[in-house]
From TrEMBL:
Residue ranges occupied by any Putative oxidoreductase/dehydrogenase Rossmann-like domain in the UniProt entry: 10-136
Name of the protein: Rossmann-like and DUF2520 domain-containing protein
PANTHER family with a match to the protein in the record: CONSERVED HYPOTHETICAL ALANINE AND LEUCINE RICH PROTEIN (PTHR40459:SF1)
Residues annotated as domain DUF2520: 153-279
Gene3D superfamilies named among the record's database cross-references: NAD(P)-binding Rossmann-like Domain (3.40.50.720), ProC-like, C-terminal domain (1.10.1040.20)
Organism: Streptomyces pathocidini
InterPro entries, per database record: 6-PGluconate_DH-like_C_sf, DUF2520, NAD(P)-bd_dom_sf, OxRdtase/DH_put_Rossmann_dom, TM1727-like_C_sf
Length: 307
């Protein structure tokens, strides 16, 4: 099993390839996929750290024959290290690596957190590392399909000026498109992505549950074309794509919706009301919702959906 191997020694210059050796700290859903993409570009994954059974399986599936070792060995073996750990873990990990002397001068340290820019790597920078923030704007499954999905994927990139070309090259080699994000804008950038992608999953799964409760046997097949068209229209047309009873000002229909939700799925009421209020505000601001209809609608929403 690959977990029993050790990283290949790096003290024989003749053995080192022209491309970069790559290590992964944190074999979640992201790290192995990015390392596999870099491997396709000619780089050489040499070591990965994985703790849970699931992370070991992911590493084995995406990086077969790459040794699973301790973090210190990953740092020792690789010229480019992917720090693919949860956002809240990243600052402490970087500090620990710098304090223990695990960081080497000239070593590329790449984190994939959307929340942070390159500044979170400052302690490693002081130790001589080259810091890059490369955040792939995609949801990951932890399977080989993720590598294919990187083609055309945007990456939120933050890097020191002197490393911009290196950051751009790595993103392009993984099949992605670099989008430069200023350090101070990273939290807002990440919030926007979470609002769009994470909340979309919640909305879609709630809609499927409600359709099943209404007797629909294949809610995914019913929703697929509708949601695909809605997404395409919204990306193309923005607020002009708004439709439905809220945008039309059908206060009675909205009240009926909420009444049904209170009876059959009370856990969805708060989300429905919040999104309806936001939709009404946007429709009113863009002249789609007539003011005389907006008054009754907003009154219903303010009253928790009760007519």
């Amino acid at each position: 099993m690959n977990a029993s191997h050790s990283p290949e020694p790096k003290d024989r210059p003749a053995d080192r390839p022209a491309r970069l050796t790559v290590g992964v700290l944190g074999a979640g859903r992201v790290g192995p996929a990015l390392a596999a993409a870099l491997q396709l570009a000619g780089h050489r994954p040499v070591a990965v750290s994985a703790v849970s059974d699931a992370s070991v399986r992911r590493a084995a599936a995406l990086l077969p024959d790459v040794p699973i070792v301790e973090p210190a060995q990953v740092m020792e073996a690789a010229e480019l290290v992917l720090l693919t750990v949860p956002d809240d873990t990243l600052p402490g990990l970087v500090e620990g690596l710098a304090e223990t002397g695990a960081v080497r001068p000239g070593q590329l340290l790449v984190h994939t957190s959307g929340r942070y820019g390159a500044r979170v790597l400052d302690s490693a920078l002081r130790a001589g590392a080259l810091p890059l923030a490369l955040h792939p704007v995609m949801t990951f499954t932890g399977t080989p399909v993720d590598v294919q999905r990187l083609a055309g994927c945007s990456f939120g990139v933050t890097a020191p000026e002197e490393l911009r070309l290196a950051a751009q090259a790595l993103v392009i080699e993984m099949g992605g498109e670099p989008e430069w994000i200023a350090e101070e804008n990273r939290p807002l950038y990440h919030a926007a992505l979470a609002l769009g992608a994470n909340h979309l999953v919640t909305l879609v799964t709630q809609a499927m549950e409600l359709l099943r409760a209404a007797g629909v046997e294949a809610p995914d097949r019913m929703l697929g074309p509708l949601l695909g068209a809605a997404l395409d229209n919204s990306l193309r047309s923005g607020d002009a794509a708004l439709t439905g009873p809220v945008a039309r000002g059908d206060a009675g229909t909205v009240a009926a919706h909420v009444a049904e939700l209170r009876e059959h799925a009370p856990q969805t009421v708060a989300g429905y009301l919040a999104m309806a209020r936001a939709t009404a505000d946007r429709a009113l601001a863009h002249g789609m919702l007539k003011p005389e209809l907006a008054e009754d609608l907003l009154e219903v929403l303010a009253d928790g959906g009760r007519p």
